[in-house]
Each structure stands twice: as structure tokens, then as C-alpha cells.
Fold this sequence. Notes:
Structural class: mainly alpha
Number of strands: 2
Distance between the termini: 23 Å
CATH architecture: Orthogonal Bundle
Radius of gyration: 13 Å
CATH class: Mainly Alpha
Strand content: under 5%
Number of domains: 1
Helix content: 55-70%
Shape: globular
Strand order of the largest sheet: 1-2
Amino acid sequence: MSTLKRPMINDALRLVRLYWGLSQKGIADELEISQSMISEIERGAKAVSMDILEKYSAKLNIRMSQLLFFAEELDNEPVQNKGKLIVAGSVLKLLQALAPNEIKTAV
């Protein structure tokens, strides 16, 4: 049985939610989308659209460029600079390692 690797953008959005101390329902209410959509995005079952990223950016005061840093591809268009993916993956690992204990146990 093979398992698909969750895209980095999905992990980044999960960490953003956790660092803001929001539940999936809380972030869903902020973004005016369903909690099930948040769950599917965080699990990697659903692709992240530019519309969703714009909502995260606007509601949580995060620049789009900061969110897009973790996007391997959007709308099936791969990122041109593969070196960026190595750095983005390392940043996610570092953030996870530095996360408060209550965040580590919530995931």
C-alpha cells in the first residue's frame, strides 16, 4: 500500500492554524468555508486554491508570498526553482520541531 506525501503547502496551512491557536472549525469560520474543507486541505486530500490562500492571507494578515513559499505547485504548474523546495521543507521541519508541546500533540 503506497501513501501519498502531503504537499508542503497543506502542512504549512495546518501549522499556521495551530500557531494562531485556532481549531479547524475556528479557522473555517474565519475564512468562511466549511470545517470539512479545512480538514481535507490539511490532510492533503484537497488541493489548495489561490482563493483559499487569499482568504488565509487577508484574514490572518499573512503575505501571499509567505504562503506561496511552501507551494510546490498550484493548478498543476510546478514551481520553477526546485532548490526552493528543499529550503521550504527544511523550514517546515524546523517549525514542527520548535512547535509548543500542545501543538505537537494536536497533530
